[in-house]
Amino acid sequence: MRLSTSALVLGAASSAMAFQDQKVLSDPSSKPAVKFGSDFESLASTLKESFGELTADAKAVWDEVSLLAPDAMAAFKEQVKGIKPKKHDRKPDGDWDHVVKGADVQKLWVEDESGEPRRLVGGKLAWLCVPAAIYCNNAFIGPYQQTGYNPYDIRSKCEDSGNLCYEGLGYISEYLNKPEVMEALGAEVSSYESCNFQINRDFLMRGDWMKPIYRLVPDLLKQIPVLIYAGDADFICNWLGNKAWVTQLEWEHGDDFRSADAKDLTVGDKTYGNVQSSHNLTWIQVYGAGHMTPTDEPEGSINFINRWIAGEWVAK
């Protein structure tokens, strides 16, 4: 079944950044140098390494999105050409068994028809989800980027497009990239980045941005407490969208959560947010905070984290 334009629009729930400029707001007037054009097959041959074979209906979606968002598609094409991971001195997967079993990681790989290893993901779903993500990010997040405002804090302009709009992140990168600091930390890679866009692209290339991840939450709630919080000055993961999906989530105690009263969160004489909680699900809105909530509201952040760890909002 071919995805129509309206279906793509209705599916625009991604909170990721516009793919045509992952590093946020370079020159808003700049245009990609290469148009998507008719050389899709050459691009597809590269993507098949990740997705497998292209189906006819998936090709139709790519054609449609290339017409609707040509600049975004052109930028995507440039970004995926010649991607190589940074140099690293990686330890064997088994060295991290205290975090995740190396054997479990290896289970994610299978052999294709030629005997080559391939991730156990991709295929038709990825072929469809990737152009949907490109289109939706271009249509919904692109316009905000053009304003020059920080997508992590609607109250301020973007200070440094090379460091996620925060000048301070550049200072952190400079410090963590000092040879003596890297040696002391036992770094296994050649450099530190505040946001690794190779990993970002890998998630996109697996169709991750458009998958309904919220469907995993009900099963999690049966096993562990879940906390969702957002600063109300954040655009990219805005509190309105987060509260909407949390409130509408279908799970066994959903009605109890929706009927629960929101209560003020305070530190001393200051009210820094509100909390709504029932059974194992907790929602917190932090006032006057952006994406970097602990930076904008340090006292409130440590307060609700400590209370969360102490089990105040955990189902008894």
TrEMBL record:
EC number, UniProt record: 3.4.16.5
Domain Propeptide carboxypeptidase Y span(s) in chain numbering: 1-106
Database matches in SUPFAM superfamilies: alpha/beta-Hydrolases (SSF53474)
Coiled coil: none
Entry's Gene Ontology molecular function annotations: serine-type carboxypeptidase activity
Biological process according to GO: proteolysis
A Pfam family the protein falls into: Carbpep_Y_N
Top-level taxon in the UniProt lineage: Eukaryota
Record's protein name: Carboxypeptidase Y homolog A
First and last residue of the signal peptide: 1-18
PANTHER family, A to Z: SERINE CARBOXYPEPTIDASE CTSA-4.1, SERINE PROTEASE FAMILY S10 SERINE CARBOXYPEPTIDASE
Job description of the protein: Vacuolar carboxypeptidase involved in degradation of small peptides. Digests preferentially peptides containing an aliphatic or hydrophobic residue in P1' position, as well as methionine, leucine or phenylalanine in P1 position of ester substrate.
Keywords from the UniProt entry: Carboxypeptidase, Glycoprotein, Hydrolase, Protease, Signal
